[in-house]
Amino acid sequence: MPEPKPEIVFLANSNARMGAAGAEHAKVALEQEGFTIKEFRVTSSEQELLGHLDQHLHNNESIIAIGGGDGTLRSAAEKIAGTEATMMVVPLGTGNAWAHELGIPPGAGNTARALAHATTKQIDLGIANGRGFVNVATMGLTALINQNLEKRGKGIFGRLAYIPAVIRSISQLRPFTLHVKTPNEEHRGKALMFVAAAGRTHAGPFQVTRAAANDDGMLSLYALDFTGRGGLFRFGLALLMGRHMDLNEVWTCECVSAEVWTRPAKRIIVDGEKAGRTPLVLGIRAGSLRVLVPESGEQRAES
Asked: 11-28 pLDDT, tens per residue?
């Protein structure tokens, strides 16, 4: 019999890929691991979930589990940051990029087992034009992929839906003028992609820069400068091996803030959701978010 765990409130968004059934399975699995769920609520929208979250934050709940995809988790994290509450991440979406970053596996049983051996960690919240983010703010190739992704197909086919989106996006890719200004340096050039990360990884398991971390109070930036199809192929291979920052076409930087201009204005994607167009002002709220991180996630972060 597992030892008793703290009481938690569990709020889940039924619009996530795993839906209400996935939330129910996660609830049962968490209870089997010893958690006491004093309130369980499945909402019909992200806005409804955030409304209930506001109430629980007002009531000073200590641990609040949020079930949903990356968009819902981002919105909830933005509200929880700066409070005394600790967030428990329950991945119910397709990409589950932030959960992967934290070392929380998908699947009700796997998620619950990982969270049963978790500790509280204070991590950073990135800020993009006043909007909080836990993973990345990006533009260029990644924004095109988001634009070409069929939301209905994403819900039905999961990660397979990304394949035609990537192919279509590469065919549409055009370089843009990029100017990035940080407190310590500037970068100008023709770019295909720009990424600003609050954590260690992006697009799943891929390290943003060698120094990237989710608790160092720094943003990690990189830009992929204009290159031909051969260069894109080299970049893809290097990204898979975690060596993309060694390429001449890739500029990297660690900083606490940055301003970004492009010509023409480019669509900004923040944690997988559209967030207006450039210019972009970036910042970081160091250590402002308390989140439960499995022991395996801590070990991976240190490796």
From this structure: 999 988 788 999 999 999
